[in-house]
Amino acid sequence: MLTIHIPNTYIPERTYIIQTLMHDFLGIDIQLLIESRNDVIIEVNDNQAGRTLRIADVIFQTPMSEWLSLDSLPEQPLNVWDTTNMLTDMPLVSSKLPVIYGYQAEGCSQSTSYLTENKHELYLGLDIFGSAFFMLTRYEEYVKPDRDQHDRFPATASLAYQEGFLDRPIINEYIEILWSCMKRLWPRLERKKRSFRTIVSHDVDAPFAQAFSGFPQLIRNCGGDVLRRKSLVMALKRFKSRQAINRGDYKQDMNYTFDRIMDISEKNNLKSAFYFKTACTNNTFDDNYSIDHLYIRELMRDIHSRGHEIGLHPSYETYQNPEQTKLEFQKLLQVCDEENIRQDQWGGRQHFLRWNVPVTWHNWANAGLNYDSTLSYADHAGFRCGVCYEYQVFDMEERKSLSLLERPLIVMEGSVLGTAYMALPEQQALQYMKALKESCRKYDGEFSLLWHNSMLNNRQNYLMYSEIIKADPN
Q1: How far is CA 70 from the centre of its chain?
Q2: Do residues 413 and 460 lie in contact, with contact meaning Cβ atoms separated by under 8 Å?
Q3: Please, are residues 187 and 106 in contact by the beta-carbon 8 Å criterion?
Q4: Which pairing describes strands 96-99 and 115-117: parallel, antiparallel, or unpaired?
Q5: CA atoms within 13 A of residue 88's CA, in its CB half-sphere
Q6: E strands, 57-114, where?
Q7: Model pTM?
Q8: Residue 164: is it exposed, middle or buried by C-beta count within 10 angstroms (0-12/13-18/19+)?
Q9: What is the DSSP string of 126-148?
Q10: Are 345 and 381 in contact (CB under 8 A)?
Q11: How far is CA 207 from the centre of its chain?
Q12: Are 350 and 318 within 8 A, CB to CB?
């Protein structure tokens, strides 16, 4: 067990983030000692005049009058720690490491200013715990007013995007530095074993392209295929699928790619999660299908019978509405109960990735959901929370942990391919998504990928998706 000496300020916040990094992520038992000090000291319990690890404490030195204000944000541009000659054995994405919060040691050059040692201690000037708290709680999103047309905090307003580290799991890198320092002092220390995994999920916004619409809509859609999408093939495919639906074969609908999705997942030893909507709160942005419809219920039974997961996709206006969130989850549970669908956990993702800190997390926890997987930016894929590990969330207003896990979303296909967002060409998009996956693998983390069922109705997307989730050869 390790003893960690912490300052006597921001006790709930410190306790949460130290527990998350040390116990949840690294699997190390700890005890905290609260003292009057301005740094963090880590030592082994039976430390007989042995060396200690001293860590800089920056964000939690913020006066309470400035907490959750613009004055408490990291000063930009960030300092960059050149670790080239210092941390050669460490699995960093790049040797040039942005420092979110930290203090340079006096009398050191820029390249070595964050790590020094003497016979008494190892000093780390990187405020690992404060920086991790900043990223995991989405602190800056509470402080900054920036919002897009859907009231979402955009990637372009984030520190990670502006400082060029959105594509790297910066807190995973920080954790590796922390671990290396501790292992250097206490070689017999062991950490929790982790295994890389791919997590695939599918927001069921539009389960059918034609099954729930009439002939006039079919004509408009086919016209759009020819005139806007320049695809006569797509128009013919849409028309033929409608004919099949009229004969009673709804699985021929263009958007009905569920069997194909499950086939791909099973081939790669994965379990897909399908997040269903149970209400419409905005006629413009919610596809209005009923979870009570015979087709939807049969689909849910098929998913469950094949061992895949069902979850919630709350409607457009729920992200700040606790009552509506709870109603929609209760409706999902009711339908699943009626269909004999039983699961150990329930999770999902907000529609349009609309999310507000800490309100949406609070809504989910109070509704009784187990995990959320909303946190990726719509306008840019990457590590919004700075980690590729699932973690317990923290309510900054009530200053306490919630009974909810955040499963950070790393890639939504629409962010990478969508013309309104990154709009990457096909091959570039494939390589970009695979690179994010490899960054997750580096830290034995979780590569969480969202691919809508309605985005697998053409061969190019199907092949791209299959390539991204392809299992590693034995």
Answers
A1: 24
A2: no
A3: no
A4: unpaired
A5: 2
A6: 79-82, 96-99
A7: 0.93
A8: middle
A9: B-HHHHHHHHHTTHHHHH-----
A10: no
A11: 24
A12: yes
Using CB atoms within 10 A of its CB, is residue 427 exposed (0-12), middle (13-18) or buried (19+)? exposed
- Can you tell me which residue has the tokens 């900043």? 134
Closest among 395, 394, 391 to 406, alpha carbons compared: 391
CB atoms closer than 10 angstroms to residue 395:
19
E strands along 94-220, which residues? Answer: 96-99, 115-117, 121-124, 197-204
The dihedral region occupied by 89, where left means phi > 0, alpha psi between -120 and 50, and beta the remainder, is alpha
- Judged against a pLDDT cut of 60, whether residue 109 lies above it is answered with no
The whole-number pLDDT of residue 216 equals 67
Q: Which residues contact 260 (CB under 8 A, 6 or more apart)?
A: 456, 462
Chain centre to alpha carbon of residue 188: 33
Cβ distance 410 to 381 under 8 Å? yes
Instruction: Give the pLDDT of residue 251.
Output: 83
Alpha carbon of residue 254 to chain centroid: 29
Q: Are strands 446-450 and 39-44 parallel, antiparallel or unpaired?
A: unpaired
Tell me, what DSSP letter sits at residue 64? G
Q: What is the pLDDT of residues 252-298, one digit of tens each?
A: 888 999 999 999 999 999 999 999 999 999 999 998 799 999 999 99
Residue 14 near residue 6, CB atoms below 8 Å? yes
- Cα 3 to chain centroid distance, Å, stands at 31
| Residues 122 and 39: beta-carbon distance below 8 Å | no
Say which range, 222-236, 244-258, 284-298, has the weakest mean pLDDT.
Answer: 222-236
pLDDT at 110 over 60: no
DSSP strand E in 27-130: where?
30-35, 39-44, 52-56, 79-82, 96-99, 115-117, 121-124
Q: What backbone torsions phi and psi does residue 315 show, to the nearest 5 degrees?
A: -70, 175
Residues in the chain: 474
